[in-house]
Design goal:
This is SGNH hydrolase-type esterase domain-containing protein. InterPro entries: SGNH_hydro_sf (IPR036514). This protein is 30% helix and 11% strand. The protein is α/β, with parallel strands linked by helices. Helix 5 packs across helix 6. The C terminus is likely disordered.
């Protein structure tokens, strides 16, 4: 319990600080080596310095916090912001400077559904009108049973609803990954649309083409994490459902692909798309 409270406190403090980060125009995620993504499991030193990483180095999936010093004491009054995106390391490439000023990103690298749930305190949840969750891939990759997956998804959603009745919950379908077939997981995520009145953002569709093959050039070599182009496609998919970028990139979106095939599976990844 003490570990969970500590994680929540660190997430709250870090979330306060990220809001001081200036924003700039967003067209596509660049290959910049610096990401302004908030990470719930990083420590903060006395100098409040930036942690930077190479966004193309998929082997580094450690915890990082990217923020600016905040000398303003937290107000006792809850500040309502628009959107929080929370999830596993797939979100790490998102550059906060490209998002609207009232949108934040909280990443929990390597974490599963219930671990992400533990990072969402009521104090954090109550500050946002919209909560976008990208999670479950690590659960599926670890071999969690379908019943366990659904129960954990349901537990996360109900926990959010308990902490903030007015917060709209969005679940992202999980993008293809080489270490597991995500289709059963995505079916469970979509079930919550009817069962729990959750809004679904279909991110999976952005990474497959009509024949069901995975768009491999959107990934790092590990076959799991998105490169700069893939991160841009992910953000575009989310932005179509819930606008959160500062500027539209035009009529042509980076993830315009035909409807996904129901037969997509791990072998289709191996075939790939060049």
């Amino acid at each position: 319990m003490s570990n969970i409270l500590t994680q929540q406190k660190e997430a709250e403090i870090s979330l306060n600080k990220i809001r001081q980060t200036p924003t700039s125009s967003y067209a596509e995620i660049s290959n910049s080596s610096s990401s302004n993504v908030l990470d719930a499991h990083s420590t903060q030193n006395k100098d409040q310095r930036f942690n930077t990483e190479n966004s193309n180095d998929s082997s580094s999936v450690g915890s990082e916090i990217h923020n600016t010093p905040n000398k303003v004491q937290r107000s006792n009054q809850t500040v309502i912001r628009q959107t929080l995106i929370i999830g596993d390391s797939i979100l790490r490439g998102i550059n906060k400077s490209g998002l609207k000023t009232d949108a934040d990103v909280l990443t929990c690298p390597g974490k599963k559904l219930l671990e992400i749930k533990s990072n969402l305190s009521g104090e954090i949840t109550s500050q946002y009108k919209n909560l976008i969750v990208y999670a479950g891939g690590n659960d599926a990759a670890s071999g969690s049973a379908r019943s366990t997956l659904y129960n954990d998804i349901k537990s996360l959603i109900l926990d959010i609803r308990t902490k903030s009745e007015s917060c709209a919950v969005y679940l992202c379908t999980v993008c293809p990954r080489i270490d597991t077939d995500v289709l059963p997981l995505n079916e469970l995520l979509k079930r919550t649309r009817e069962d729990l009145e959750v809004r679904i953002i279909d991110c999976h569709q952005a990474f497959v083409i009509g024949n069901g093959n995975t768009v491999r050039h959107n990934y790092h070599r590990d076959g799991i994490h998105r490169n700069a182009k893939g991160t841009s496609a992910l953000v575009t998919a989310i932005n179509r459902q819930l606008p959160l970028t500062r500027h539209e990139s035009g009529n042509r979106s980076v993830n315009e692909h035909p409807q996904i095939s129901s037969s997509t599976n791990r072998s289709r990844w191996q075939q790939g798309y060049q």
